[in-house]
Amino acid sequence: MLAGSSSRGGKRGWGERGKDGVSEETAVGTPLGAIMAAAVNQTIVYSITDGNQGAKHLDYEANSSYVLKVEADSMRVVSSNLRVPSKTNTARVVIDIQDENDHPPFFSRPLYIGGVAEDAKTFTSVLKVQALDKDTGNYSAMMYRLIIPPPAGKNTKDSKDGFIIEPFSGV
Ligand SMILES: [Ca+2]
Ligand SMILES: [Ca+2]
Fold this sequence. Notes:
Layout lengths: L16 E2 L2 E3 L18 E9 L14 E12 L10 E12 L7 E2 L23 E2 L39
Parallel strand pairs: 2-5
Antiparallel strand pairs: 1-2, 3-4, 4-5, 6-7
Bound molecules: calcium ion (2 copies).
Protein name: Protocadherin-15
GO biological process, one term: anatomical structure morphogenesis
Keywords: Calcium, Membrane, Repeat, Transmembrane, Transmembrane helix
């Protein structure tokens, strides 16, 4: 069974399978596992008959699992190579997709405007920024920092008048 709908080209390795399933960054064409059916003295032809629609590239955010219907078709190999009526059977294969950190965070607003009185006490909250991320769990955990620190106040050596941001809350 291969990831995605095409099996052409690319390096073939076993798909990465953590305990949560197959990585959403698994390349198209990566073998994910094998399915076997038994039939005495017969050749078995396998095909995916359902559940493979729109599975070109794995994307956890679009689809976190796939349920495939796999059909095994046993055809008796006869000397004349004619195909006699065959018997089929189907199995359901559930493939869980594992989330990867493939989305950057984005801020809830392009511009934040805060105001503060000039005589406000140190540690007065000015504003809170918020960024969101489409990934789940740790891949959407956020930490904020000021990349252009404001200039320190003129009269203080210890930048008491500067702004700081709390890394985890965004305040
Ligand atoms: Ca993701
Ligand atoms: Ca992310």
